[in-house]
Amino acid sequence: MTYRISSLSAIEILDSRSRPTLAVTLAVDGATQVTAGVPSGASTGTREAVELRDGDKARYGGLGVTRAVGNVNGEIAAAVRGREFAGLGELDRALIELDGTETKSRLGANAIVGVSMAAARALAQSAGVPLWRYLTPEGVAPRLPVPHFNVVNGGAHAANNLDFQEFMIAPLGAPTLTEAVRAGAEIYAKLRGLLAGAGHSVGLGDEGGFAPQIDTPEDVLTLLVHAIEDAGYRAGRDGVAIALDPAASEFHRAGFYQVAGEKLSSDEMIERYALITDRFPVYSIEDGLAEDDWDGWTRLNARLGERVQLVGDDILVTNPAITTEAIAKNVANSALIKVNQIGTVTETLETIRICREAGWTQMISHRSGETPDDFIADLAVGTGCGQLKTGAPARGERVAKYNRLITIEAANENLPYGLG
Ligand SMILES: O=C(O)[C@@H](CO)OP(=O)(O)O
Ligand SMILES: [Mg+2]
Predict the structure, then answer these.
(1) 53 CB less than 6 Å from ligand 1?
(2) Which ligand 1 atom sits nearest the alpha carbon of residue 41?
(3) Which end of the chain is more exposed for a tag (fewer CB within 10 A), N or C?
(4) From CA 219, how far away is CA 228, in angstroms rounded?
(5) 32-74 pLDDT, tens digit each
(6) 313: Cβ below 6 Å to ligand 1?
(7) Which residues are catalytic?
(8) How much distance in Å is there from the Cα of 239 to the middle of ligand 2?
(9) pLDDT tens-digit profile of 284-317?
(10) What separation in Å is there between the alpha carbon of 368 and the centre of ligand 1?
(11) CA 195, CA 414: separation in Å to the nearest integer?
(12) Do residues 167 and 209 make contact, with C-beta atoms less than 8 angstroms apart?
């Protein structure tokens, strides 16, 4: 079966950080139009596909995306509208070829990923199946992922507080997705009370988590365990576990990891994580070391990889070739998956496949700049990877994804929940 893109256009809208991004609208074979909102990161890996921004300081301080919008409405639409495609893979390959650069910098990864996401949605619609089912690879069993609620925000996602970027609670032991969301919301409420009671700010960071002025990651973890237990849950893998994303590239300066006033070598940082995972129910650490510290990553994986999930984000950037190299070098045991880091849905699915076949786990992820688009909820269910991180259980653009998971669960009682 083939299909034709009958309409394709884009406009500039705002993301959750009040920065411009794209909404791409597309239809196939004259059917109803669908839209995709393009996400955008703040702590980006240097090898990510490149977002095209206008650079015109007079508009949005240079962050406008009218050139990327123009590329969708102009060159991309001219190249793909009316043309026959056998499927999403063929369209994505055409977009990659049209762009012609390694990093999608000519037309913009933000332009290309919006077209790719909208096309996937339109194809699911024309096949008469939910998006998650359309995205399910052959031979893979879909499942509802463990939501990873980022309840304390630091690093590049909040002003002047913690060095570690994300402290997430993950209800691994919840019986269902809906109960996992309830646990997340109840613990979030308890945490607000604990923070306020201790005189901390309960202002929010970019991903809806609290952004208190607390010095050390260990102090935050102590509070989190309290919040989990006060809410009536068990802290640990059989209840509610904790996942970290220190986003260490951001505090790796002059060859040292600079945490809470200390200057740590790679090996000292690794030992700090060993202590943290001994003391607290931390089951997963993403970007524990910097993206250019591959040797450190290998030692981290040798030291903790047997008992802790070590997730590569900035170091892998959802890139199939880099991920393949990282697997060969044994630098981690898990990959963070962000559609806009690589720029097409097809390449994203390819990176997921590579991980699955190597026995690496995968966690689907939002960006710190989001729209209410809930594409990634379906991607997480369809690929059966068992993990999704999409911020706190607060703020509309984050809650949209969790609510989408609840809706999928309600309509599909037989879908299993959990890591798998
Ligand atoms: O580091 C991360 O994992 C992401 C999402 O939480 O942040 P950003 O989108 O800013 O890169
Ligand atoms: Mg990260």
Answers:
(1) no
(2) 9
(3) N
(4) 15
(5) 999 999 999 998 999 999 999 999 999 999 999 999 999 999 9
(6) yes
(7) 207, 338
(8) 24
(9) 999 999 999 999 999 999 999 999 999 999 999 9
(10) 5
(11) 39
(12) yes
